[in-house]
């Protein structure tokens, strides 16, 4: 990576917002453990998050980042707005965090802790709470909610990621032909990402034949693509942990009339979502717009769990922003706000009347929804 991707002012703004949230909950400090949130509050972009990172944020004063001592050089080079304390591999992050909290006078105080994150194991949380006598409170979601609205700096990164996405998609699509080896297609896609300046994405690319469509998060194998079987492509470029996914269904040798008609429906349903993405709308209103387009096409029997989800920062093994998905669901009361970014999916597979799928990353700007990924909708026939 090329150092901290954010300006000092951007990090300061985020920390101020977090401290406002802590003050509202009458907390003296908080410990954040989500890799996505630690990155968001420090700009630390590295592959060390397999080990716990605990960021202690007090109401006043400099935050402290606690992780393995061997990460010192990286953190001191990249992190400008937090001090570093490193622990040996003979102890845990909780052991050192307990000492740091004691040194800072937080024993017996009200301290927030992210309970709902893959970045904090049950054992580590129990150890930390056993070592520090405090009034522990759950602050899960505090930083995640702040991350939903992208700043100007973040929007720049999203657009750069989207450009990488389009280049990678073009490389994959060009390689998908009758008899093409699945590995060769994947290699071309990943090479295009890398040569264009992209960073390793949170997961994917997902490229597989339609016979394995239902294997939601599997990708290429060792087979060959064959005429007559569609190929599923879903991938994202990445710049400094920001992702902008897209998806397409590639057809080899031709397209049936039913699938061609369905491709028209997916496009209309996608555009219905764009029309519904307005500040103040609720996520369920956006889903209703997508479902309404499907219903109008005679597909009232067809339902999806969502028509998209919030996207942006993503740490391996995901680009969804953590171990949960903030979806545009039929029952969600999430309020749509300017600056939010979404992976919008218009998925009409297994309808009984034809199949198609298209997805793009969309950013809601002051001027309305901006489709960041610009690969043609298709239908794409090779």
UniProtKB/TrEMBL annotation:
Domain spans labelled Peptidase M24: 157-366
CDD domains: APP_MetAP
InterPro entries: Creatin/AminoP/Spt16_N (IPR029149), Creatinase/aminopeptidase-like (IPR036005), Creatinase_N (IPR000587), Pept_M24 (IPR000994), Peptidase_M24B (IPR050659)
Gene3D superfamilies xref list: Creatinase/methionine aminopeptidase superfamily, Creatinase/prolidase N-terminal domain
Family annotation (Pfam families): Creatinase_N (PF01321), Peptidase_M24 (PF00557)
Domain called Creatinase N-terminal: residue spans: 14-149
Superkingdom of source: Bacteria
Record's protein name: Xaa-Pro dipeptidase
Source organism of this protein record: Rhizobium sullae
């Amino acid at each position: 990576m090329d150092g901290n991707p954010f300006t000092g002012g951007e990090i300061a703004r985020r920390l101020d917002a977090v401290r406002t949230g802590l003050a509202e909950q009458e907390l003296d400090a908080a410990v954040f453990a989500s890799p996505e949130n630690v990155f968001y509050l420090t700009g630390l972009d590295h592959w060390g998050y397999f080990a716990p990172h605990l960021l202690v944020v007090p109401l006043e004063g400099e935050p402290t980042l606690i992780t393995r001592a061997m990460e010192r050089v990286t953190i001191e080079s990249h992190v400008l707005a937090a001090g570093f304390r490193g622990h040996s591999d003979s102890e845990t992050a909780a052991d050192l965090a307990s000492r740091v909290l004691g040194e800072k006078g937080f024993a017996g105080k009200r301290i927030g802790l992210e309970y709902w994150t893959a970045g904090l194991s049950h054992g580590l949380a129990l150890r930390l709470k056993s070592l520090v006598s405090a009034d522990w409170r759950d602050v899960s979601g505090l930083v995640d909610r702040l991350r939903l609205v992208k700043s100007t700096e973040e929007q720049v990164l999203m657009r750069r990621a989207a450009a990488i996405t389009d280049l990678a998609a073009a490389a994959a699509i060009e390689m998908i032909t009758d008899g093409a080896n699945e590995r060769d297609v994947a290699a071309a896609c990943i090479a295009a990402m890398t040569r264009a300046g992209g960073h390793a994405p949170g997961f994917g690319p997902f490229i597989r034949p339609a016979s394995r469509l239902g294997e939601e998060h599997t990708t290429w194998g060792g087979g060959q693509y064959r005429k007559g079987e569609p190929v599923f492509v879903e991938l994202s470029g990445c710049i400094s942990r920001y992702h902008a996914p897209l998806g397409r269904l590639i057809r080899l040798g031709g397209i049936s009339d039913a699938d061609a008609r369905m491709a028209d429906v997916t496009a209309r349903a996608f555009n219905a979502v764009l029309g519904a993405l307005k500040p103040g709308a609720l996520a369920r209103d956006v889903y209703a717009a997508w479902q309404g387009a499907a219903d109008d096409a005679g597909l009232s029997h067809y339902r999806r769990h969502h028509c998209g989800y919030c996207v942006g920062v993503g740490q391996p093994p995901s680009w969804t922003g953590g171990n949960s998905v903030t979806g545009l669901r039929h029952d969600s009361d999430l309020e749509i706000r300017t600056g939010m970014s979404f992976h919008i999916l218009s998925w009409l597979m297994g309808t009984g009347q034809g199949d198609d799928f298209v997805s793009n990353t969309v950013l809601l700007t002051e001027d309305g929804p901006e489709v960041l990924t610009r690969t043609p909708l298709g239908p794409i026939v090779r």
